[in-house]
Amino acid sequence: MSSILAIALNPTVDVSCDTARIQPMHKIRTTNPRHHPGGGGVNVARVLTALGERPALAYCQGGAAGSLLHDFLKQTSIDLHSFQIAGDVRLAFSVLEETSGFEYRFVPEGPTVSEAELAHLFDFLKRSNAGYVIASGSLPLGAPVDTYARMAEIAREKGARFVLDTSGPALTEALKRGPVFLFKPSIGELQKLAGRELSEKDAIEEADRLVTSGIVEFVALTLGTKGALLVGNGICERVPAIHVAAKSAVGAGDSFVAAMVFALNQGHGIKEAFRFAVCTGAAAAMTSGTNLCNPADVEMLYLADCKTRKTLPAIKIGAS
């Protein structure tokens, strides 16, 4: 099995398109239709593959959309492990309004899963020998709120590093119990967790609180147009945002997580992995719809970052 396992409990088939203008009560004609497998863990696995890794992906599959999702994924080199559910995998939609440049995203809740259905995935996780386990995305309806917390405990028992990118009650529960090697919140998610608005100084203190509690080893906090912060193990590093011609926000966070784990799995240090992740997240914003990042864009941005730092590029895309 791959050394990296991504988990997608609530995957999607992502449908994206463009239109000149969105008008209420009008039939909206669209162009440039695109269809991709999506959802947090799926996107992470797709980006890892694009960078040169061959990850494993454990995901729920059900209904006609689930069959379509599986067909899309079979066209990749991802090591697939699907788990059948009775409900239908969700369809998510994003529409780019060309006149304004605004992107409209419609994301349904998705199917309800039973604990019996999830039990098969837990059994699989217990048999896995992956060095990194990445839990990314929302929990499906019906999943116990401690689902990710239980996964973190299994990863610890297996000696794996658990990476978490989620929000809401599932996040709160996971951070009560840990252990989490890497937690990747956005500033909005960290503010919800803290229950208040946070200045950058406050955000650093909140991230440090999570680290000093012993639950989280590293926090990689994305700040949107203000860049990103890495906190943990005596490190507090801020990387400014890379300004690009953004076409879509879809998958930027997933690309960030995938890139960071990709670099760490190659044996690079946490700081270098963090900077590479910032470059990859920016590259994802350069692509339209649900295309995620282009490896050539990642390489271009990373080489530019290395040039600015007057250092040789350490991370090799296409090599794992």
TrEMBL record:
What are this entry's molecular-function GO terms?
6-phosphofructokinase activity; ATP binding
Pfam family of the protein (one): PfkB
User: Is-annotated flag, keyword Nuclease?
Assistant: no
Q: Can you name a GO cellular component term?
A: cytosol
Keywords, alphabetical = ATP-binding, Kinase, Nucleotide-binding, Transferase
Which SUPFAM superfamilies does this chain map to? Answer: Ribokinase-like
Q: Which domain of life is it from?
A: Bacteria
**PROSITE patterns documented for this protein:** PFKB_KINASES_1
Q: Where is the Carbohydrate kinase PfkB domain?
A: 13-296
Has keyword Nucleotide-binding?
Answer: yes
What PANTHER family would the database entry show?
Answer: 1-PHOSPHOFRUCTOKINASE-RELATED, ATP-DEPENDENT 6-PHOSPHOFRUCTOKINASE ISOZYME 2
Protein family (similarity comment)? Belongs to the carbohydrate kinase PfkB family.
Write the protein's name.
Phosphofructokinase
Q: Which organism is it from?
A: Roseibium hamelinense
